[in-house]
Amino acid sequence: MATPYRLPCCCYALVTVLVLFFSVDATEGAIREYQFDVQMTNVTRLCSSKSIVTVNGQFPGPTVFAREGDFVVIRVVNHVPYNMSIHWHGIRQLRSGWADGPAYITQCPIQSGQSYVYKFTITGQRGTLWWHAHISWLRATVYGPIVILPKPGVPYPFPAPYDEVPVLFGEWWTADTEAVISQALQTGGGPNVSDAFTINGLPGPLYNCSAKDTFKLKVKPGKTYMLRIINAALNDELFFSIAGHPLTVVDVDAVYIKPITVETIIITPGQTTNVLLTTKPSYPGATYYMLAAPYSTARPGTFDNTTVAGILEYEDPTSSPPPHAAFDKNLPALKPTLPQINDTSFVANYTARLRSLATAEYPADVPREVHRRFFFTVGLGTHPCAVNGTCQGPTNSSRFAASVNNVSFVLPTTALLQSHFAGKSRGVYSSNFPAAPLVPFNYTGTPPNNTNVSNGTKLVVLPYGTSVELVMQGTSILGAESHPLHLHGFNFFVVGQGFGNFDPAKDPAKYNLVDPVERNTVGVPAAGWVAIRFRADNPGVWFMHCHLEVHVSWGLKMAWLVLDGDRPNEKLLPPPSDLPKC
User: Could you tell me the pTM of the whole model?
Assistant: First the structure.
């Protein structure tokens, strides 16, 4: 066991953190205050400049540092012409749903010239999470890490690293991303794919005109580094590997796991993974590429099929340090070998190896008794074109759509949580979201003749404390794809997964109820299913959606309404006075 000894700051070269620390009683944690100024910033990538939305002029944005038990206060001021909201991805937000961030779910957006203060306590969490814009496609450039250290004096359950470094994957469009999604929604077709992937905002040497925009990680021999990896890409799951350096996975979605050592990880949009990287015992006289490339079973042309590279560079103890941006091009540069782009077998084997620690200190508190069972189909479908219209969907007479149980979610014009709290839900949402498909079919086989989906703003209502089992079944109506699903307000246990159609008579017998991995975002396998369990112990309205933004835009989302419990600590806190209005 090893104790992290500081709140890291200077080692994160890509960010400047503006934070004020106010000490309070140690048993209550500290108060961490941040100022987020949302502003337009000129950025050049791929030899092309454009003005993008940023926080504090940084791309990626600043790191939020805190410890377990801290109270975090973040004032967001919107200086751009777009509406804005920010989601603190993976933070439980116990009783503080007003701070969760998804626009029109827990709050109305922060309008141009307005501000909102997000306040929340970090309870029972430590590890890597992240924050991002949660409206339209603005999270393409509005995102950054959340680093949560254990309480003072509490060790990591693995050897303390020499240093810790955030590694954020993103996507870069030369075009304006708001124009990209706007055009796709108008035509009913798929959006234009990104022009590059990025590591910490940099596309790297494998793209044209980008050698100078390369993320370089300089390391010392014989040291262990912790990489805090975040997939902030909009639409792509990614393989990641570093040549000649195995990675030991110790944490996913801010939950410790039984360590596993691998050559390559797979990470979906929305997920985080902490890995330990142990450098070679002596100066190797070589540099090493770190590569990330997409995993996809979709048809070519519908995703960015490129590779982003960073460089792992050793300090040479026999020579004076080179300039900060220098890189010895005379050294051999070794590249890792990534899995094939559609290697679903690799993905399934990797995810099956992830297990909770399940110790006395970090138990796997899996619900054994289930109060409510749900079966959700997730996948693509169609909407008909307007009368006499021409669309660019699967056919000229249809538009792309996406749905959960054949319901394509429609965002309301006022926030669901505000409507619920005020008792004014009529005309805003209904509470009749189907617990299972109304018309069963062969989900991973021959698709039905009618691929149209319905529209609606429907919620599932749960009493406080309900134990839930949810099976999410991928469909192959318009092709089998993996769908990363993110649940706000909760962690859940991934108790089972498989390929083909879920069999309720046989598959539950294979569930892992001892040490299943605990997450907030999980990939529903292509042409397969995943089963999760969680306790509805957090009152409020909680969004659940695909973390591929294109599928979110098409409607692959829904929401849960968890009612207040009987005790005072089981009730939603009242809304803050500065809550934005629609």
Answer: 0.94
